[in-house]
Prior knowledge:
The structure is a homodimer.
Chain A: H1 15-28, H2 41-47, H3 52-64, E1 68-69, E2 79-80, H4 86-98, H5 103-124, H6 127-143, H7 147-165, H8 169-186, H9 196-216, H10 219-233, H11 235-238
Antiparallel strand pairs in A: 1-2
Chain A binds a DNA duplex through residues 14-16, 40-42, 50-54, 56-57, 59, 70-78.
Amino acid sequence: MTHKAAFTAVKTVKAYERVVEQIETAISKRDLRPGDRLPSERELMLTFEVSRSTIREALRVLESTGLVRSRPGDPRGPEVLQASPAILTKTVNRLVRLETIALSELVEFRIMLEGAACTLAAQHRTEEQLEAMRAAVDAMQAEIAHGPVAFSRADVAFHSSVWAASHNQLMQICGEATRGALIDMVTDGLDRAPDSAARMELSLAHDGEILAAISAGDGPTAGRLARSFLIEYYGDVISP
Amino acid sequence: MTHKAAFTAVKTVKAYERVVEQIETAISKRDLRPGDRLPSERELMLTFEVSRSTIREALRVLESTGLVRSRPGDPRGPEVLQASPAILTKTVNRLVRLETIALSELVEFRIMLEGAACTLAAQHRTEEQLEAMRAAVDAMQAEIAHGPVAFSRADVAFHSSVWAASHNQLMQICGEATRGALIDMVTDGLDRAPDSAARMELSLAHDGEILAAISAGDGPTAGRLARSFLIEYYGDVISP
DNA sequence: CAGAGTGTACTGGTCTGACCATGTATTTCA
DNA sequence: TGAAATACATGGTCAGACCAGTACACTCTG
């Protein structure tokens, strides 16, 4: 009779991957903390019993994920970095650009995101952030006289302050990524608007309403307003 | 008199980074498309005029970003991959685990996303997709008897069908990424729920309500329902 | 004794050249 | 015509070497 053994799938794991894995778990277990130094490549190749090429490939992928940084000549060895959402931004950006996405989808996504941000901002905003948003709206008012370009810069600043007030980094990252992608796609038609004066006044009024809802802590209203204003604003794009 | 030249900062760029950059832009410019093959490492080292180590390091970081995949022995060379949210999931996961991003943020983001998806699904769903959603709910009903694990699988399937019905790839990508991350984070506490039967019934009822709103084409209601149900479901996580 | 300059040892970045196991594509054979 | 054996280029890994750069200890000077 044969033994009933619980066999498990065997997949060959490349050497450098196991090195990456070990260092990665050491970091996520807090055995290695930001600011700590890894042993030098030559020491690592002894402890892991692999060649230096393997160690280097492992370090390259750790570096590309933002976990460590190597600097030539530093006798203290590679540095363990503080994890940062910046790497996420890069990934999201690439995904947004790489994927063949219709402009209407991108706009739609942005509208939903912006609405959500306003909702969250209404719930989470601090007094300082409220003040910043008010200042941003005042700046918009002032910039109307300087033309649509200056105005739209101020408009962006207002929305940024809303993102910040949402207290949600994921939201901010996605917002930034979609804004960047949108700019890339429609950059040419920015100031062609013939009725720019009226449009600016309208935008200002809309943002003022949103701010009022956020200020009142009324998340659903803030979100609904933002969405409907944006749908109006982008109407021609979203349903051509 | 000296020339007034516009000097610019000089930072040494590592060789493998320039290789990465070139291949990356080739991919983002669609010169290289998913399924295409890169030249072999030995050919690449000739065209880039660097050693094979450098080429390999470049390939490792491209691989860790999910852009290409190398398989030993394949004479056709490294493959250019389809962009996938999987890498996003991994990154989000790591950031949450390292507490750079709070779990509550992730949950919050997911709730807003899910609400938006329901709203869009109500507006864009086709007849077939509606049918698929109904089938998914029926499947949930049937799976209740088979325990919480099977049920939650069916639940996921229902939500997937909603994402699909939203007709928005970005939404789907972000949804998948956050779902993956959340599953990894809270997977252990899945079937510890003592009141699992009641919970399943409740989920089923909720999803039924959402489906009804989607079916009726009532986007705002669908979104509102989804958000409030999820807030209830994740209540303990989001405000501890 | 303090500070500026010099050394030096070790670091990471890159290169060369080699070996192995593997997957594909061709060739061979029935 | 189909299956089996082979050839060959591939990626994974290794060993050893050289160079430019950095940190740190060590001078030398005032």
